[in-house]
Amino acid sequence: MSSLEQVPLSDSNSMRRICTVNPATGMPSQEYLAASDVAVKRAVESAKEAQDDWALIPIEARARVLIKAAKALLDLQEEFAEVISRETGKPILEALGMEVLTGCDLLHFFARRGPRLLADEKISPHLFKHKKAFVTYGPRGVVAVISPWNFPFYLGLSSVAQALVAGNAVVLKPSEWTPQSGRLILELFQAADLPAGLLSCICGDGETGAALVSAEVDQVCFTGSVETGRRVAESCASRFIPVVLELGGKDAMIVCADADLDRAASGAVFGSFANAGQMCTSVERVYVVDEVADAFIRKVLQKTSELRQGDQGQRDIGPMTLESQLRVVERHVEEATSKGARVLAGGRCNPGYSGFFFEPTVLVDVNHEMTLMREETFGPVMPIMRVRDEREAVRFANDTRFGLGASVWTGDKRKGVEIGKQLKTGSVVVNDCLINAAMTELPFGGIDESGMGVSVGVQGLRSFCHVQSVALDRFGLKTEMLWFPYTNKKFKLLKRLARIIWGSFLGKLFS
Ligand code: NAD
Questions:
Q1: Is residue 231, in this structure, part of any structural domain at all?
Q2: 298 and 259: one domain?
Q3: Largest Cα–Cα separation, the chain
């Protein structure tokens, strides 16, 4: 039996019963009671108690726990991938490649780099030459991690691992629809002998999440929808606690006339349909320059027709995870077609299955009057819009309230980067898609309604830290220029010094 805090799936103080559904069949899958407010409070209290000692342990020792967790993950990779695949409906190869193995890499990355990235940072004061200074990155305390169902293992693990290595304790609340995948994270750290109380996993719904946010936590790291993110941000703001918000997206793909159309079409198909389109950085809108649009669409249709949809064996596209999300997809497609969009592939639930299977769908003749081009669809749907030129593509791409990611496809990489810089997004990729989120050294986050702050990268890791500036006096002089008493002599001296520092060549010494 592990020493870790276990908040049971069944909580005797709770009254709310949650029933998850098997996405492949649409049948009930498991039932549990949401953690009560009492259980949430207890988890936060245990975390607080355990965190004091954890923060005093050298970061190298904390990093060793991450390495142990990574080793356990390697040993359990297939078992974990099966749980994630079963619960979400995603193909097992996707669960392995995009959740388990990226998780393994992330644990190694932050274990190896964490000690250096969070070491005291020496600063050379440009003006106060008689002082020493440095910046420290200490833990904040107890971090609440609230995660969604679309990447139920990796997204939770990412925040948990970074928060822990930085010296924090964590209370994790996975999505109510994927509790087992969330609890795998707890199992992993149990296997790595993480000290008791430092990590808890409380299972429950939005009410449980709200109770956690308003408990005595010191930071919230939230990944989910814009609507919930806003509520979480308001709650954090009222208590002045820092919050990282990783929210929805409506990523645009721009296909220039000089693009490698074969690669671009493969990228579009992967970017729109991987994980049944349920990725925050899925390709949700394609803008293709008119002169290559026909050829591009032909290739997209060919590649889409080769996809295998199913619930087991070798398959590319699984069911959607939730029926409610499937209904959103249906609504967007129906509304678009009623306004003149044409479906060239898919466009309906797959009649061969009783679960939540929506066929990979390609639409043309779309415009920005359609919800499909404005709201997050979060399903296997690729709307393609013809544009006059790249400038028009940029204008349409920026015509959104989201700002998560985007991709540009062109034979001229420099031009691709230039176009990318004109896009108002947290990340951009040239001639690829969905990759930024897996590159652990890159900060990942959105602007506008796609969120606030970043996860991963140096900036992401440091966002789990309390940044403290430390200054030291070097020489122990009896007094300082601006200390009392204020005299006319000091006044004149200050004016002379100002001329030397900011009005003469000697200023270089102070830059
Ligand atoms: P959601 O907002 O419904 O739920 C997310 C989590 O918040 C769940 O654990 C839920 O129980 C909890 N929650 C609900 N109400 C709460 C409240 N009032 N207070 C605290 N917690 C509460 O989102 P979802 O449907 O699970 O996830 C899909 C969304 O997540 C999509 O919009 C997707 O784009 C986004 N997402 C973003 C990223 C990113 O990195 N930007 C990554 C993955 C998913």
A1: yes
A2: yes
A3: 91
Report, as an integer, the average pLDDT of 47-68: 98
pLDDT digits (tens, 9 = 90+) for 357-370: 999 999 999 999 99
Nearest atom in ligand 1 to 151's CA: 43
| Beta-strand runs (E) in 75-218 | 121-123, 131-139, 142-146, 169-173, 199-201
Which atom of ligand 1 lies closest to the CA of 148? Answer: 26
Do residue 331 and residue 190 come from a single domain? no
Pocket of ligand 1 (CB under 6 A): 146-151, 155, 173, 175-176, 205-206, 209-210, 213, 223-225, 228, 231-232, 246-249, 280, 376, 378, 404, 446, 451
Per-residue pLDDT of 81-121, as tens digits, reads 999 999 999 999 999 999 999 999 999 999 999 999 999 99
Q: Are 306 and 331 in contact (CB under 8 A)?
A: no
Q: The domain containing residue 216 runs over which residues?
A: 31-246
**Residue 238 domain-assigned (yes or no):** yes
Burial status of residue 82 (CB atoms within 10 A of its CB: 0-12, 13-18, 19 or more): middle
Regarding whether 211 and 260 lie in a shared domain, the answer is: no
Q: How far is the CA of 223 from the centre of ligand 1 (A)?
A: 5
Task: Summarize the confidence of residues 378-389 as an average pLDDT.
Answer: 98
**Ligand 1: distance of its center to the CA of 219 in Å?**
17
| Same domain assignment for residues 271 and 335 | yes
